[in-house]
């Protein structure tokens, strides 16, 4: 008997890339001077969240490039975006997360969103060991996680063990994608940069 051929339901995913040094340098300068709170516009249960909008003109071409790469990689054409639509970096901020702080499940506005793991102080192995859930069958301390619905309507999760090995990397994804960040238990600060890409 002939073996059946498996076929998948097409779906979109996410991009991960090392952020170019010149972009990180601009962001580093902006973070050092950041003082305008951004908390009221964000879901994070994080005390220190600051606006980075002053450097948008210097970095937005990079994020627009990622938007076009995403559309190409996944054949993704969001409704309402025509061939003449102009993509822009809508907003940009930094999260300075202390231990025990977290980002609940949420999504973003716009077409695309991203997280840059700028300075993560821990390894996942350390976190899993320090976690009060270290004997759990679902220990996710320190993880970033996507939540989505599969082709038969089931809620699925995709945890990403974003630790210090991810420093300098960006994750780029559709803004509507639900995601969260679990608490960590190590000493130090977990610094990430996020923003939204939209069309004018």
Gap from first CA to last CA: 56 Å
CATH superfamily: q2cbj1_9rhob like domain
Radius of gyration: 18 Å
Kindly report the spatial arrangement of strands forming the biggest sheet.
Answer: 1-8-5-10-3-2
Main sheet summary: 6 strands, antiparallel
Series of H and E elements = EHEHEEEHEEEEE
Helix content: 10-25%
CATH fold topology: Jelly Rolls
Overall CATH class: Mainly Beta
Mean pLDDT: 93
Structural write-up:
- The chain is α+β, with helices and mostly antiparallel strands and 200 residues long.
- The chain is globular and about 65 Å long.
- The protein has one domain: Jelly Rolls (Sandwich), CATH 2.60.120.620.
- The mean pLDDT is 93.
- The chain has helices spanning 21-32, 56-74, 124-130; strands at residues 15-18, 48-51, 87-97, 103-106, 112-119, 144-149, 155-160, 169-174, 178-181, 190-199.
- The strands form 2 sheets. It has a 6-stranded antiparallel β-sheet with strand order 1-8-5-10-3-2.
- The termini are far apart.
- It contains 3 helices and 10 strands; from the N terminus they run βαβαβββαβββββ.
- Helix content is 19%, strand content 32%.
Note the topology.
Layout (H helix, E strand, L loop, with lengths): L14 E4 L2 H12 L15 E4 L4 H19 L12 E11 L5 E4 L5 E8 L4 H7 L13 E6 L5 E6 L8 E6 L3 E4 L8 E10 L1
Antiparallel strand pairs: 1-8, 2-3, 3-10, 4-9, 5-8, 5-10, 6-7, 6-9
